[in-house]
Structures are given as structure tokens and as C-alpha cells.
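Appendix B.2, paired examples.
Example (i):
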Amino acid sequence: MNQYDFYAHKPSSNYHKSDIWLLISMLLLWGLGMFTIFVCSQSYAARFFNNDALYFVKRQLLCSGAGLILFLTIFFMDMETIKKLVIYLVLGTLVLCALTFIKPLSVEKNGARRWIKLPLRFTFQPSELVKFSLVLYLASYFEKMSEDVSGERDVLPCVGVFLLMVLLVLLQRDFSTSVFLVAIGILMFFVTGAKLKWVFPFMIFAIPVGILVITSEQYRIERIIGFLKPSEGTQSFNYQATAAKSTISAGGIWGAGIGKGLTKLNSIPEVQADYIFAGWTEAMGYVGVIAFIALLVFFAWRGYKAAASCPDRFAAYGCFGCVSVIVMQSVINLMVVCGLLPSTGIPLPFFSVGGSSIIVTLAMCGFILNASRCQEKAEDFTQFDDISVDTLTVI
């Protein structure tokens, strides 16, 4: 057990205090998310859960507690220990993904089996954990490969594990998340300096496969039609997107406030899930939208700054990947709610109701904050070539 010592081996003088502004931005995002769930979920919860208006709020708080435990564990854990545990995390994630195909252990919703049964009517969605596992796996792999990551023999085993994770998620009928994983993987390959010559033949193969997957399901075709022709299916397959746009417009500049002022909110089915930002917009208006975007940009800036300042390659790559997962999910979700992308199943981190999402998001935040204290003192600061401030600025 000595090789899994949970305490840092380096003197404390080699570590900075954690980025307090990064921590504050995380707490604000979580707090705003809980407030939005409180505002948006009460009517739906009261109708479907025995007049328990705070049903979703209470469950989100319980899951946040579990996420907080992971947050603190990962935050205080030595980076070397995390590196050694990555392989077990990946294997565990693959096993959990496989369990979704065993009917007695999984839950089916809307024709898809993406959730594992847990006690007290809780479920867990392994595809959320795949996001974190993939980032840490790629960070660990390229840290071991150091600067020599351009050879096919070095990259192909990594690509194999990467594609296996994507395939398992795709087989769960979670096309949106599988595409998101591909985007995160390619971004990680780019940042670590790997040559992307293998991407082009992969894309030649992936594009027709993607088209085939989209056209194989009626609801995916309807989502594309609803995006290209917003006036189609406004009372059927495109109802949720149409109602979200109406809700956003109702907020105006300053918002309608909370409580009885939210007249459009209840028109969105399951608004507490992927379309919860429409509820935030109606309550807080465009001023609230600007405030959220400013907070997200601030979080991204502090997170990417921590990644660029970290001398430990694994911590830097992992920090970059975790920040990118949270930020990219947020941007995609906002674009979907505003009608700039077709409907997807990508949740809004910190905001959307979902135990799996908030637990994994807080775990990633623990890693990001851990990486932020691995910075060398300013006078000794040396950036490594693979992640530079210029690269992160461009991204």
C-alpha cells in the first residue's frame, strides 16, 4: 500500500495554495445551479412526485454531497497516486458501461439503456464517468510518452482504448455523448502535440458511419429537421425547442423574476434537465445570461491558466481536459437551448438535474483545483512546450 500514499512527497514549499478564484468560480457555478433547480423544478416535481416540490432539489443536494466527497478526495490526493489509479478508473468505467447491457442491472428510458440501478431509486449513468476517465487516461498516456507521441506504434494503442470507450457509449444509444467524446479526444491529442495524420482517414470512416447512425433512429432525424426547419413539428417533435425559445424571449432584458412571474417555464417538458437554462433566462433575463457567460469565461480562464502554469505534464493535460469538458458541455447546451444546434442529450454542468453529472463534474473540479496548486513559484516558472499560453488562448 506504500505505493498508494495519499500524501504529497514533495516539500510543501514546492506547492502553491490552490487558486482561490478558481474555487470561488466553482462554488458560484454550483450555487447558481442549485438556485436554478429550486426555481425551475418545483412545479414539475409537485405534479409527478406526490406534491413534493423540492424532490429534485433534495436529490441534487444528496448527489452533490457524494460529489463533494470525491472532490475533496481527489483534491488532497497526491498526483502520483492519481496516475497509478488511472488504469483502475478506466477498467472500472468499462465494466460499468458493460453493466448497462445487462437488463436486471440497468434502467431503460425512452428506449435507451444508459443507467445502472442503485438503491433508493437512484441511478448512475456511466457515460458521464467516461468523460473524466478518458481525459485522465489520455493525460497519463501522453505524460508517459513524453515528447515522443508522433509514432503510430505509440499512438495506436491509445486510439484503441479511446475508440472502445466511444463505442460502448454509442451502443447505449447515446450518440450525442459519443460525438462529444470524440471531440474531447481529438482536442487532447492536439494539445499534447500528437500528429493528427490518423484523424483524416478516421474522419473518412466516421462521417458515413455517423450519417448512418443518425438516419437509423427516427427521433434523430426529427431533431435535424426541427433544427433546419424550426416551424416544423412545433406541437410534436420540435415542441421542446420551440417552447424553450418562447421562454427565453419572455425573460426580456431584466427577467421576470422568480415564483409567479415565470409564466412560460411550465411549457417546457422536464425543464429541469437539458433545457434548464431556458428557465434561468426567463427568471434573470439577458442580464442573467451575460452574468453566467462571464462567470463561465472566468472559470475557463483560471482553469486554463492553471493548466498552462503546471510543470507536471499529467496534471496539466488532465486539468486542460477537465476544464474543456465542463466548458464545452456548457457552450453546447447553451447553443441547443438557443436553437443554434440540434437538440442533444448534453447536460448543462452544475445546472441540469442529474446525480451522475454533478458527481463527475465535482470530481473533475477536485482534479482541476489539485492541479492549480502544483504551480511552481513565479520566479521559477517554466512552461513546457506542449501546452503554452498561446495555444490555450487560440483554443
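Example (ii):
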Amino acid sequence: MADRYGSDVLADNPHKKPRSAECQVEIGMVVEDAQTGYVGAVVRIEYGRMELEDRRGRRKPFPVGPGYLIDGKPVILTAPRRAAPTAGRRTASGSVAVSGVKAKVALSSRIYVEGRHDAELVEQVWGDDLRVEGVVVEYLGGVDDLAAIVEEFAPGPGRRLGVLVDHLVAGSKEARIADAVRRGPGGAHTLVVGHPFIDIWQAVKPARLGIPAWPSIPRGVDWKHGVCDALGWPHAKQADIAQAWQRIRGRVRDWNDLEPALIGRVEELIDFVTALHT
């Protein structure tokens, strides 16, 4: 089975350094955090996070993802692969469909995504899983006020919050917001993850649209308008942008049509918010 978690995206500009190799994290693996120089063996892996223990027995938590060295070579650590599912009808997310089970009453835990398009794509691919687990996905309309939103939600034991953020790359505004949430009230019960794409549209593999790659849009040009213009699609009105998104989403059949960097993040969030209720 393909690596459902894929690679994370908190890496520097790939034009400035060689691309790191992906490596599945395992208990006992010795890794070095490239930023701080902390070296330790992996002693715990949970919900996109790991804990390293150094030679003095001190432990420190780190996110699973890029920014590590193994034997001096840069790597992107990926979460352990799930066991292969047994035969049966698959949902759009690739999981085995559960028949004859009613949707659960919604959990107190939640998953927040940035916008309407994010919520629609998550529902389209993971909707069956979300209903079985009783997970509600809500969209925020942006993450500028995420710290205040998390504080208002008041996550705690038995009430977790997962947040999916667009364009979560090193040095970005989104990365600073995510860091503030982790250090703020409820941070211990909140998981903020993100994908590298400017917009959720890019999480759809370009081959599904018959193009080799998503167009490169210059700074200062609205990204969605620029994409539509480059592809020869109408974009003068907001209705045109909505139609373009429906055109893109209509090409998505299941999780195989999405980039691993999105698939992994969504599944981490589902695992995180349901772990206390299984």
C-alpha cells in the first residue's frame, strides 16, 4: 500500500538546498534535529509527533517531518505506514467501507480547515470515515485569528482540536501562527498541521486536469485568478472561480487523485481527534 501519510512540508526553499530523502520513522532510530543539533533515539511516535531520548536519558518532543539528519544526511521523516486493510469495498479515502453502521453522534472534538473549498474536498474524500467516527469538519475563512479561535474552543482532555492550514512552510505567516497556537492555551490538546500548497486546488494532482503541472503565478497576482487565466478558464467574476473549483473537484475520484502531502495531514488529524474515543 502507498505511504498514506506522505511527506510533511516544513522545509526550506528546495531551490536553496538539496532535496531530502524520505525515511519512515521507527522506534530506536537515532536522528539529529538539524536546527538545534539535538541527537536522540526515537522512543515514541504518536499523531505526527515523536519523542527523542538523548544519551543522558533526557527526552524532548519533535514533529515528524523534514529538518532531520540520519548519519549526517538530510531526511524527511514520515509516519509509520498503516497495516494493509482487508479485502472489501473501499471508501474514497481508501479505507474499508463499514456497512450497516449509523453515523455516530458528533464528538466534542473538531477538525478546522481554512476555507470552504478545503472543507468540500475533505468531505468528498473522507466523508464516509468522518461520519463513522463522528467527526465534524468546519471551515474558518482564514487563520489570521487562529490563536483566539483555539482559545475560544478551549481544547482539553477529551476535547481535541485539529487544524489544517494552507501553505504551512518554514518562515511563513502560517508557520508563525501555528507556533503561537502550540505555545498558547490548549496547545497540548491541539494539533496544527499543514500542506505546502498555496491553495487546496494544488492538492489535486495536475494530471487529473490534463496538465503537467500547476501554473506558476507571479507575486501580486491573485493565485486562483492567475491559474484560471493561465488555463484559459473564465475568471472575471467570483462565480467563474466557483465554477473552476467545481471543475477541479469533479476530476477527483478518490485519494489517489490527491497529493500525499494533503492525504497524510488529513489522516493525522482524524487519528488525533478520534484517539480518545476509540
